[in-house]
Design a protein that fits this description.
The complex is a heterotrimer of chains A (292), B (309) and C (250).
Chain A (H helix, E strand, L loop, with lengths): L2 H32 L6 H18 L4 H22 L9 H23 L15 E3 L4 E3 H23 L1 H11 L1 H6 L4 H23 L9 H16 L4 H21 L7 H12 L13
Helix pairs in contact in A: 1-5, 1-8, 1-9, 1-10, 2-3, 2-4, 2-8, 2-9, 3-8, 5-6, 9-10, 9-11
Chain B lengths: L3 H16 L6 H27 L7 H16 L5 H23 L4 H21 L1 H4 L5 E2 L10 H23 L2 H11 L1 H6 L4 H27 L1 E2 L6 H14 L6 H19 L3 H15 L3 H15 L1
Antiparallel strand pairs in B: 1-2
Helix pairs in contact in B: 2-7, 2-8, 2-10, 2-11, 2-12, 3-4, 3-5, 3-10, 4-5, 4-10, 7-10, 8-10, 11-12, 11-14
Chain C lengths: L2 E12 L2 E12 L3 E5 L6 H8 L7 E6 L2 E2 L5 H6 L2 E3 L12 H12 L15 H11 L14 H14 L4 E5 L7 H18 L2 E5 L3 H7 L2 E6 L2 E6 L1 H6 L1 H13 L1
Parallel strand pairs in C: 3-8, 3-9, 6-7, 7-8
Antiparallel strand pairs in C: 1-2, 1-4, 4-5, 9-10
Classes of the chains: A mainly alpha (292), B mainly alpha (309), C alpha/beta (250).
């Protein structure tokens, strides 16, 4: 592999990683605070991509209006779902929450079929981002470059909000002790609703940003949710920087796997995850579960 | 030992099922065969969920391993059924033992996620190992012994194997081992303090569940004369989980009822509408919001209310 | 008298908070020994360190000459140490009978028997234990539906099913009415005597402590500040200062 090929693949791996991070970080945030594994996250991602398609292609609005529409729509759906249904399930067993999100998957997959049918769609790069940047020894496509900037920006923004603001302190405290927070006068239910909304909006944004680089087909939700699970498990459930690391590992393994072991690139991420878990059962930055 | 009433009731059920082919409807025979296979599949999962309190999200893996292994041994290698079937079941059990070894180090949601991850690895292998599994074309043209090619004969074969499997699971679930598993489900910390190595017990339960899941898968592959990668996908794991929950996890027969109800409902729904996922989604919402202890739990509550008034 | 349990230089801290500070302690075979101390003194942590629920940061614990540090609870209980818990720790959806039966099955190592029906095993032994703690009439009730005091009794029966030589009871009368407390203490004393057990218990009710303990150790901020016969401990100036002083404030 020449330096050019290596750089190009590393770059594509990074772009994939950043796109995956945006999606996985939402899943991870929801798990970290609500302790809910949201199987519908992949579906939110798919809706994000399809909504962007409708807004940008069918209606002809600018691409980034489509991204915004995806974020708002998914946030809104998530907020309504949380307020109407999910909030009644926090005190029940994990299993019930998992099944609930699986019910969402089923209902939304049929809804998607009704709205968009089963055709394959593509969105195309936004104007001004279809080109490439020439660095002499390698030519890097602009849109992927854009993803490499947006991913870290979102990571830093999340870190800032969670670690440096009062609201973030409340969120972090909510992962520790709900009753105590409620006793201190914090509106815990609204914190939960906000977290579910933001996490789901991230899935929508992730889907919208993925739309130019992938084909939009039914079933894309099932693939992405697995990949998100791999990423958050590798990084450590509930740990934001863990997800960032997990996404990087995932991006590089998939990209280089495609080049070096083209038949096995789909299995490699699972092998990577197993390798991590055998050494660190709670993921790279995860902590052993406490209590029983 | 089961009580006399339970034994007689089971015998009557098996006998009634055995009479179904006499009605002459191929449709009824096939449908019953499918329900029997799913009943065994669901029961095997409930060893983990209902009896040990560990939620597996990857039970389809062992179903698929049993199915693929049996199919490959019969077809590619020409083994006789009497060897291929036990070998496939043992293989499913062995893989479950290896996977379980890692999974039981974790608990609760972490355990569930890890079972899912391993199952997706199995799916990935079935998908990519084309020369052996046929990849996404599936493994078709499975050679079953001439005696079993007739659908009525296969029905009786399934009835016999599933009955034996259910009987074996009944004995295991009601044994000293099974009772100790329930104690672990109820309070694993306390179980440790009475001298139970909870991790090893959970490991054993995982292996038992995988073994019987493999048996169900082997029956399934031979019945359909084919195995497909969808059989290993996580949606299949979710499906069997729903069967278990719909029936009720805190009773032995719950999953059997759940399997029958869900499968029949799916078949009938598909006759009228392509939107089975919506129907299933709504069923799930009902389970989650108002029926957390399943149909058996509902029946018990109704009975208790009737008894009181 | 011989030493049954010997603890030396035991430390345990949680995120900077020292719950057990350089504790050394000797328990004599056959004695009834109480650990007392204000709330948060580290009594439950101390029990958790002995029974393998927690691993000490430093120090040694030896039971009849055998090192316990690093052993998991299930191994320690097999050496002859059983315990009850301050917070109810039973199998809520099993019957009272099954709660005890499982403990007997585990004690006999039959948990690996996949064929013998569990509910047919140790019926007599279970019945005996239930009669011993006065729960025979409730045998078929669901354990989680018993009254608080009766669940505490069930805890005791489960612990006894492991046939221990050393019995650790963590606040055996917490949350009980005065009458229940009296009955429980009487029954514990009888059982310990009849079975020749060594008893180590924590307790907040001083009348219970002085009624049953032959020796008392006082734990304060994770340290043992006094240890000895009840009268000596009662008159210890340090204990008076710490214990009574804190009570006066509390």
């Amino acid at each position: 592999m020449t330096l050019t090929m290596f750089t190009l693949n590393a770059f594509y791996g990074l772009a994939l990683a950043m796109n995956m991070f945006i999606i996985a970080s939402g899943l991870n945030l929801i798990f970290g605070v609500l302790r809910v594994i949201n199987f519908a996250h992949g579906m939110f991602y798919m809706f994000g991509a399809y909504i962007t398609f409708t807004v940008a292609k069918t209606w002809g609005a600018p691409f980034f209006v489509g991204v915004l529409a995806a974020a708002v729509a998914l946030g809104l759906i998530a907020f309504v779902v949380e307020r109407l249904l999910l909030r009644h399930l926090y005190d029940k067993e994990h299993l019930m929450q998992l099944l609930f999100t699986f019910a969402l998957v089923l209902l939304m997959s049929d809804a998607a079929k009704m709205i968009w049918g089963t055709d394959q769609y593509s969105v195309g790069y936004p104007p001004g981002m279809g080109g490439a940047v020439n660095l002499d020894f390698v030519i890097l496509p602009q849109y992927q470059l854009f993803l490499c900037v947006v991913g870290p920006l979102i990571a830093v923004a999340m870190w800032f909000v969670v670690d440096r603001t009062r609201w973030g302190r409340v969120v972090r405290a909510a992962t520790q002790d709900r009753e105590m927070l409620a006793a201190l006068g914090v509106n815990v239910p609204m914190v939960y609703a906000a977290v579910f909304t933001i996490g789901s909006a991230l899935a929508g944004v992730g889907g919208a940003l993925a739309a130019p680089r992938i084909a939009l087909v039914p079933g894309m939700d099932a693939t992405i949710i697995n990949e998100c699970f791999i990423i958050v498990i590798i990084g450590g459930l509930g740990n934001m920087w863990g997800s960032f690391l997990g996404a990087l590992a995932f991006g590089f393994v998939v990209q280089f796997g495609t080049v070096l072991a083209p038949n096995w690139q789909d299995v490699l991420p699972y092998l990577l995850m197993l390798a991590v878990l055998i050494v660190r059962p709670w993921g790279l930055l995860g902590r052993p579960e406490t209590g029983h | 030992m089961p009580s006399h009433r339970q034994l007689i009731a089971s015998a009557i059920v098996v006998l009634l099922l055995a009479l179904i082919p006499l009605a002459g409807s191929r449709y009824a025979v096939d449908l019953t065969t499918e329900v029997l296979i799913y009943a065994l599949f669901a029961l095997s999962l409930n060893v983990l969920i209902g009896f040990t309190g560990n939620i597996s999200f990857g039970h389809a893996a062992y179903f698929a391993i049993g199915g693929y292994a049996c199919a490959i041994l019969l077809t590619t290698y020409g083994w006789p059924l009497a060897l291929a079937l036990p070998a496939a079941v043992v293989l499913a059990g062995l893989v479950a033992a290896v996977v379980g070894f890692f999974c039981v180090r974790l608990t609760q949601i972490y355990f569930a996620m890890l079972t899912l991850a391993f199952a997706m690895l199995v799916w990935g292998i079935a998908f990519k190992w084309k020369e052996v599994t046929g990849g996404d074309d599936g493994l078709t043209g499975i050679k079953v012994p001439a005696m079993l090619t007739n659908h009525v004969n296969y029905f009786y074969f399934t009835l016999a194997v599933v009955s034996a499997g259910i009987a074996a699971l009944w004995v295991i679930c009601h044994s000293a081992f099974g009772l100790t598993l329930v104690a672990i489900r109820e309070n694993s910390v306390r179980a440790g303090f009475i001298g139970v190595d909870t991790r090893r017990m959970r490991w054993a339960a995982f292996t038992v569940a995988g073994t019987f899941g493999g048996l169900a898968g082997a029956l399934f592959g031979m019945y359909h004369r084919g195995m497909y990668i969808e059989n290993a996908f996580w949606t299949e794991s979710a499906n069997v989980l729903i069967m278990v929950l719909l029936g009720g996890i805190y009773s032995f027969v719950g999953p059997i009822i759940g399997a029958a109800v869900l499968h029949l409902l799916q078949v009938f729904t598909n006759q009228y509408t392509p939107y089975w996922p919506t129907v299933l989604g709504l069923i799930l919402l009902v389970i989650v919001m108002v029926l957390p202890d399943g149909l058996i739990g509902l029946a018990r509550r109704v009975k208790a209310r009737g008894g009181r008034s | 008298m011989t030493t049954m349990l010997s603890i030396g230089g035991l430390w345990k801290s949680f995120a900077g908070f020292v719950a057990t500070r350089d504790v050394s302690f000797e328990l004599l075979t056959g004695e009834n020994h109480a650990i007392i101390g204000p709330n948060g003194a580290g009594k439950t942590t101390f029990f958790n360190l002995i029974t393998g629920h927690l691993r000490p940061d430093k120090g040694n614990v030896s039971f009849e000459g055998r090192d316990l540090v690093g052993l998991p609870p299930q191994k320690i209980v097999r050496l002859g140490i059983a315990r009850s818990f301050q917070r109810i720790n039973i199998y809520p959806r099993l019957t009272v009978f099954e709660n005890v039966q499982v403990a007997l099955i585990a004690h006999e190592g039959q948990q690996w028997n996949l064929f013998r029906p569990g509910r047919s095993l140790h019926r007599e032994g279970t019945q005996e234990l239930l009669e011993l703690v006065g729960l025979a009439p409730e045998a078929l009730e669901t354990a989680g539906e018993l009254s608080y005091g009766k669940q505490k009794q069930l805890e005791l029966a489960i612990a006894l099913a492991s046939q221990p030589r050393l019995l650790l009871l963590d606040e055996p009368t917490a949350g009980m009415s005065p009458q229940e407390t009296g009955e429980t203490i009487a029954s514990v004393r009888d059982i310990v005597k009849a079975r020749g057990l060594t008893l180590l218990f924590t307790e907040h009710d001083m009348s219970v402590v002085f009624g049953i303990a032959e020796r008392i150790s006082v734990l304060h901020h994770g340290e043992i500040i006094a240890s000895g016969a009840p009268d000596a401990v009662r008159n210890d100036p340090e204990v008076k200062r710490v214990y009574l002083g804190e009570h006066a404030h509390g």
